[in-house]
Amino acid sequence: MLDVAVIGLGWWGKTVVAALRGSGKLRIVHTVDTDARAGDWARAQGFAFSDELDGALADPAVRAVILCTPHSRHSAQIARAAAAGKHVFCEKPLALSGAAAVESIRLCNRHGVALGVGHERRFEPPMIELTRLAKSGALGRLLQIEASFCQNKMVTLPADNWRQSNAEAPAGPLTATGIHLLDLSVSFLGAPESALCRSRQLGSPLANGDTLGALVTFADGGVALINAILATPFAGRFTLYGTEGWAEVRDRSHPEHPTGWTLTICAVDGTTRSIDYPAASSVRANLEAFADAAEGRAAYPIPQAEMIATIAALEAVVTSSKTGTVAAVPASP
């Protein structure tokens, strides 16, 4: 059992707490938040509580931290946790620049601690099957991805909420939903090469934008077309096209409260078949894979090179959203 501290008890921090109830691999023993009201909630749940990260890092019972904090804090918090010998699970995005992602990974490796990232979409059962299909060659050469992740959960955020900050969440929906699609695209198409993005505020009070469209190219010639919106009801799909067929995962509901998925597979002759998947907690599956890595049972399934590539692609998308031009994905330092 891996005893962990959850750092940040906002919307997603509490979602993580709920996902870990009953887990046989992780146990929450400490929580951290700067809001005293969160402390009342945490203590009512039976967790130790601190108002700063140092409280959890000094707790000998804590073997790992789960960072559910504003994005700009991730790099410094990872550095502090790694130096304290704590394994680190960081909610997405791992960093806001490729160079920062490289440094976080270097520090975790240097201190011998496991690093996990909140890309739970990889752990959804139909996405696992789509990955198997792609790797088996059943879809032929992979050509293009069309992906969409839309929601309207954030349209009522207060104006001073950090998720509306261009510094914390540049390019509007990118760090909220688009990052998942970027990460999945990297997992299928490999090294990203360039990005062209448009992000606008069209249908909400969200000051940093609510509508994003991005075209990301990859070194092997593949392309990902990404749509992310924060001002429309939930919709989620991920379609992978190849020379021998295509396959699409459609979400029935938001991943916070999954109700299942449908995977449709089209063969080269045009015939299709669909597989329905019941609800499953991909958030818990990701965290339990992290626990396995921390305790030496198995390697963490997301390669560190892909963690870096996803953030390098994010950096290029942000640059393009600011300049209106195609931005090259920065090379790793």
Attribute tags:
Rossmann fold, 31% helix, 9 helices, 9-stranded mixed β-sheet, 333 residues, Dihydrodipicolinate Reductase, domain 2, 6-stranded parallel β-sheet
Report what the structure shows:
With 333 residues, the chain is α/β, with parallel strands linked by helices. It folds into two domains: 2-120, Rossmann fold (3-Layer(aba) Sandwich), CATH 3.40.50.720; 122-328, 2-Layer Sandwich (Dihydrodipicolinate Reductase, domain 2). Helix content is 31%, strand content 27%. The protein is built from nine helices and 15 strands. It has helices spanning 11-19, 36-44, 53-57, 74-83, 98-110, 125-136, 178-189, 282-294, 304-323, and strands at residues 2-7, 26-32, 48-50, 64-67, 87-90, 115-117, 142-150, 192-200, 211-218, 223-229, 235-242, 245-251, 261-267, 272-277, 327-328. The strands form two sheets. Strands 14-13-12-11-7-10-9-8-15 form a nine-stranded mixed sheet, with helices on one face. α5 links the parallel β5 and β6. α4 (74-83) runs parallel beside α5 (98-110), α5 (98-110) runs antiparallel to α9 and α7 crosses α9. It is globular and about 60 Å long.
Secondary-structure map:
Blueprint: E1 2-7, H1 11-19, E2 26-32, H2 36-44, E3 48-50, H3 53-57, E4 64-67, H4 74-83, E5 87-90, H5 98-110, E6 115-117, H6 125-136, E7 142-150, H7 178-189, E8 192-200, E9 211-218, E10 223-229, E11 235-242, E12 245-251, E13 261-267, E14 272-277, H8 282-294, H9 304-323, E15 327-328
Parallel strand pairs: 1-2, 1-4, 2-3, 4-5, 5-6, 7-10
Antiparallel strand pairs: 7-11, 8-9, 8-15, 9-10, 11-12, 12-13, 13-14
Helix pairs in contact: 4-5, 5-9, 7-9
